[in-house]
Amino acid sequence: MLYLEPLSAPPPAEPPLVESLRHSTIFQEYQRAFTITTGLPLSLKAFDALGLAHGGTRHQNSFCALMSARSHSCSACLEAQQRVRECAVTGARTLLCPAGFLESAVPVVIGTQTVAYLHIGQVLPRQPSHAQFERTLDELGRRGVQLDPERARTAYFSARVVDPRHYEAMLRMLGIFARHLAVISNQIMLTSHPVDSPLIARAKAFIADHADEPLSLALVARAVNTSSFYFCKVFRRSTGLKFIDYVGRLRVERVKRLLLNPHSNISEAAYAAGFTSLSQFNRIFKRVVGEEPRHWRKKQTT
User: Fold this and answer.
1) 161 φ, ψ to 5°?
2) 83-137 confidence digits (pLDDT tens)
3) Within a 10 A sphere around the Cβ of 280, how many other Cβ atoms?
4) What is the rounded distance in angstroms from the CA atom of residue 65 to the CA atom of residue 82?
5) Phi, psi angles (nearest 5°) of residue 142
6) Where is pLDDT greater, at 53 or 211?
7) pLDDT tens-place string over residues 239-269
8) SS3 per-residue string spanning 116-131
9) Second-level CATH architecture of 195-301
10) Which is the most buried residue in 54, 110, 169, 207, by most CB within 10 A?
11) Are 55 and 119 in contact (CB under 8 A)?
């Protein structure tokens, strides 16, 4: 009888919003500027993301890179990074990893939902001592991590040291950036695929021109001369969104622009953007923005 090894489950797909945020121009430019300014790696991760937050990055701590080559240390690092995400519920949180380095996560929150985390860390809060290094080796040894002492010593004492006051200032900067990412997250979802196929480009242009009219997947598919089945599959693959979600997000952005006018009526803005009922509008607006239209508008005028 032939026995087959059971197939391992595929890793969970990354949420489209997190992928779009990570590949957006604004995140990549901020990441580059932050890393050049501070010398620290900055990553954006989903809650259940697999892999080390800073694995293989240019500014990864050399001691952490040495540890990541060992399976036991890799699991310890993954556990520490997952734990700091679990603690970062209402704001930035910092923990010490098993090797004594700071690990921090800053949540990106839309309404009441945390959609991603900004990760920094791999720094020491003070100049290390030889006694501290020996304690670190002992702790890692108890966890089954065996490192070459001399290579580990060189890497450990070359690690970046950031005093707590400066580190806290970095976290405040990331908190501001996380809030900005949340505000523009819907715009990023709609524009994060600059190189569209001709079919998708025509479809997006048609949707934009007719967003204030009744729209259906079949209608747009006919407008770009393809079948509904093929268009549905290609559109989802290209944008990371279902057709109905893309249209809803586009209309929400139009409502937001209309509501910047203090004399604009919320219900009139909703209908002008293409929503066919207020209940539909309120449900989609809250799902996309994270709060009710009147609350969002109040924030823009205060």
Assistant:
1) -115, 125
2) 888 888 888 999 988 888 899 999 998 877 888 999 998 899 999 999 998 988 8
3) 13
4) 18
5) -65, -25
6) 211
7) 888 999 999 999 999 999 999 988 889 999 9
8) EEEEEEEEECCCCCHH
9) Orthogonal Bundle (1.10)
10) 54
11) no
